[in-house]
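JOB MANIFEST
job_type = single_chain_structure
chain_count = 1
residues = 245
[input]
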Amino acid sequence: MARVIRRIVKIDEEKCDGCGACIPSCAEGAIQVIDGKARLISENLCDGIGNCLGTCPKDAITIEVESVDEFDEKAVQEHLDIQAPAEPVAGCPGSRMRALSPEKPTGTAAASAGEDGISQLGHWPVQLTLLPLAGPIWTDADVLIAADCVPFAMANFHDRLLSGRTVAIACPKLDDTGPYIEKLTHIFADNSIKSITVAHMEVPCCSGIVYVVTQALEKASRGDIPLTDITIGIDGTIKDERNTL
């Protein structure tokens, strides 16, 4: 790849606190939070325009002129095809990556995530489209891939399935699942994931989420990751639970 003298984003890791506020402003998806710090994942993805300038509350981002890889629009498009299979989300503050600290449920709170329950969500966002390809949420993680409707049907979803897990939600019926397979392939291949639990409704179309996950595991050559398949009934009860590894 050709090296050229041009403008490029620089991130001061000493100042960066990993808040992710810069990510939505980067239309090329060149910045991700990895190991708790915002990082430029590839020089050829950064156009050097600097839309991310001013979004950082720690003033950790600057623009410098250096000898770097040439900006590659084709590489950007390929990268975005993996990152964003649905509508573009750049510029949405709600997509900023955040780590949460849920409390351990006890007593009545452990029985339900209802009015008096305790949320067990450990990060935001949760939609698969918006999640990064790498970072702390995937490190030594027990991962839950849940169909969109599962939390609505299952009263004790937080305590029974979500607690202690990194969650990604998707709809196998209404979404384009091809990009989901590609994205999960990268996530499974490049991160130290300990286990995967797939939760889906009993209706036939919802089992497509299992296909998405198994295809991604196969493409990532990660047959070593334990996989649990859980079927949830429309009445909210667990109809079937099986380990496939």
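[summary]
DSSP finds six helices and eleven strands in the chain.
The first strand starts at residue 3 and ends at 11.
exit_status = 0
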